[in-house]
Amino acid sequence: MSQPVLQIENLQTHFFTDRGQVPAVDGVSITVHKGEVVGIVGESGCGKSVTSLSIMKLVPNPPGKIVGGAIRFKGEDLVLASEKRMREIRGNEIAMIFQEPMTSLNPVFTIGDQIGEAIRLHTKTSKKEARQKSIEMLKKVGIPRAEAIVDEYPHQLSGGMRQRVMIAMAMACNPELLIADEPTTALDVTIQAQILDLMRQLNQEADTAVLLITHDLGVVAQMCHRVVVMYAGNVIEEGDVRTILKNPKHPYTIGLLNSLPKLEESQERLYSIPGNVPIPGSLTAGCRFAPRCEQAMDRCRQEMPELIPVEENHRSRCWLSI
Amino acid sequence: MTEELLVVSNLKKYYPITGGVLGGEIGTVKAVDDISFSVKRGETLGLVGESGCGKSTTGRSLLRLIEPTSGEIRFDGVDVMKLKHEDLRKIRRDMQIVFQDPFASLNPRHNVEKILEEPLIVHKIGTPAERKKRVAKMLEVVGLSSYHARRYPHQFSGGQRQRIGIARALMLNPKLIVADEPVSALDVSIQSQVLNLMQDLQKEMGLTYLFIAHDLSVVRHISDRVGVMYLGRIVELTTSNQLYTNPLHPYTQALLSAVPTPDPDVVRERIILEGDVPSPANPPGGCTFHTRCPKAKEECKTVRPQFQEVELGHFVACHLYSQA
């Protein structure tokens, strides 16, 4: 395997609130190699979005703060990087796409202005060249009438088109890492299929590493090489996509897969994981999933397991995996 | 008593577009454009479609929360369209709705007891003591406890709020529940809890559901029959097994093939549709799907296909299957 583009080591991002310190991300380690698509899955509040914002150092401070760990981007620790250095990196070497394309585009600037801004910020180009490059990028992401769209405003486009514009903007500077935070959640299935296809194609053409954050295991199956499953601020299982989806070891991953309704077959009743996702900050000792786990033992309630290797490239944070 | 609890025929909901100097009507948005279907007692009919296809408008029109433009809605033998204010209110005892957003559909200033009691007060049912008892019982039924009655909506998680929404709909012992995207806002593990709850309640209380959702796997799981909507029209309607094993309409085929499956071994031929859903203010003529349909013929551009039964209980609106 080629050398890693991104290495997150034991990242801890905590929020300091009136009610005390909330460990939203608590010791997360993720590695992304060149050209690889790594998925982070988990339910709301598991810390997947905070992890991605931490990489870009976009966690609102206060109340959020990276209190420990390292984020190595091509060897450079971003946790220690200055704000000036971060500005050079953001949008240039690491780009990000968000869930809601309408809120991440500025409504009062044209599409061309916004893509051009990203280009001109990081490369020495004239306005005219930036415009040309914008049109070129729009064509690349499959936008019809690119010459006309470049002068239009975000509200004139549909949701799928706006997400294409976001991707065009993110890819404009040939980033080495693309972070996509729920890029298709707000879109309809037929449009989702288009966008996923486009992202896969760009990943293959430019060899960009992608960190894909999603709650949809179907999207993971289609897009990712490796998967990291998060629960309550921890990585609880990681492995290649096939292993995680076909042969998961952690009871949470198994429960999550079983609670999905299947399109191919009809089931009488769905499996459901009892209880609710724990509120961050109200964590107890021991394994965080223990209160909802049907196989929990005494040990689980007292001692938090490490990520235990199950086989090569497959680790699970569960005492049962030993 | 007929087998069908709800019969909808030629339902239309048009919204006027006003504009111009005098603010006159310059067009119409055909949100729901001539749809007909029926729901049998005790069954779940699913309605699926992408955003803007008119599935929610249909659900709300049935209860006349939105006034339909024209059409006939027969609920339990009564023509809902002809009812006047007071009678309409009474019939709503038997038809209730559960909304998508459990955050927006509960009054934040009322505690759960007040939220659940309100339907009973509106319909003047029971004494205060009886009502309190019924609230406590209903909370148990949906898997909460009677001690939750004093709490406010913000003190609950999304899944629990959706349970409260369901409890509120059940307070009056309705016959029909229109569930408008009831699990879309929930996490996967919570979604399965709520779906199981809805199935249990249906068995226990003999409920009939009209289940509106955009998630095809969820709809398949819960529905006996499924209708697929596109741009205000139902393009295909059949049993849930038939629809998923033998979809006939090209739109249904594309929609099913676009759903990502979590099983890496399932290899499906994926049909990726080009372009977006056209604007309902200016829908294409003929079959509204012809602009994106990979199998469109000349005829599709001009003639609207009839919604007809091609196999027993399998309705489809497509020229590919029309008998000449």
TrEMBL record, chain A:
Concerning Pfam families, the annotation shows:
ABC_tran, oligo_HPY
Q: Where in the cell is it found?
A: Cell membrane
Give the UniProt record's GO annotations in the biological process aspect: peptide transport
Q: Give an example GO cellular component term for this record.
A: plasma membrane
Domain (ABC transporter) ranges? 6-257
Q: Please give the PROSITE patterns that the UniProt record associates with this protein.
A: ABC_TRANSPORTER_1, ABC_TRANSPORTER_2
Query: Can you provide one Gene Ontology molecular function annotated for this UniProt record?
Result: ATP binding
Name this protein carries in UniProt = ABC transporter ATP-binding protein
From the broadest rank down, the organism's phylogenetic lineage runs:
Bacteria, Bacillati, Bacillota, Bacilli, Bacillales
TrEMBL record, chain B:
InterPro entries xref list: AAA+_ATPase, ABC_transp_ATP-bind, ABC_transporter-like_ATP-bd, ABC_transporter-like_CS, Oligopep_ABC_C, P-loop_NTPase
Q: Pfam families annotated for this entry?
A: ABC_tran (PF00005), oligo_HPY (PF08352)
- Per UniProt, which keywords does this protein have? ATP-binding, Nucleotide-binding, Transport
Which BP terms does GO give this entry? Answer: peptide transport; transmembrane transport
Residues in ABC transporter domain copies: 6-256
Question: Known SMART domains for this protein?
Answer: AAA (SM00382)
**What GO molecular function terms would the record report?**
ATP binding; ATP hydrolysis activity
Q: What PROSITE patterns does UniProt report for this protein, alphabetically?
A: ABC_TRANSPORTER_1 (PS00211), ABC_TRANSPORTER_2 (PS50893)
UniProt key word Lyase: no
Q: Which family does it belong to?
A: Belongs to the ABC transporter superfamily.
This protein's name: Dipeptide ABC transporter ATP-binding protein
